[in-house]
Amino acid sequence: MNKPWTREELILTINLYCKLPFGKLHKSTSEVIGLSQILKRTPSAIAWKLVNFASFDENLKKRGIKGAKNTSKLDKEIWDEFNNNWEELSFESEKKNYEMKKENIDSVFMDDDERMLKGIDKKRIIKTRVNQSFFRKTVLASYNNKCCITGIDSISLLIASHIKPWSLDKKNRLNPRNGLALNSLHDKAFDIGLLSITPNYKIKISNELKNKKPTSVLKEYFLNYDGKEITLPTRFLPDPELLEYHYEKCFVK
Description:
mainly alpha; 49% helix; globular
């Protein structure tokens, strides 16, 4: 008889689902094997549960990817928990992940001086950094660790950019649909409004750049991309309403 899945196990599994590129949701992936050892389940069982979660992803359904059948009621409940409260479930799953691996979350996300802090300040620092790390990994994995504009695939040069700024929308701070994988140059341009992405995923370059003397560098890194479509993620498609906000409120037209 198959051992029933617990909420804790499912939280850890959906955490991995978010952080793995879609093409790696299979039993031979090292991260899948690692989680199977922690949960004392087979890699095949973990991979199957990952694909179960994929069946709830509306963006995958639109692309004709249905995921696995025979999902459980608890699978759907955990999926909905994450999608309705990224702020809390991201942290809960990451914290549990470190506990299961017997790693000290304080030592990973705080320096020596900060670890001397106590109470609310320490908890706030840890939670913020853990969640930011989770958001970055989730967004980049959705774009297969490539810039959605240029295709650059050097992770050290990539940033998980917030479409609607972190400070302005608490509900969507950790929502991967509020994220874009951008290289550091285009992230900066996006942040200050010299570049935007329309709700139909077209790149728009500000007239502030278009009206400058057209140098080869300006053409190569900005003007040549104007009007082109970004490379869409395999999961967590950018929310059109959030893109509309950036285009209308942040973009320097």
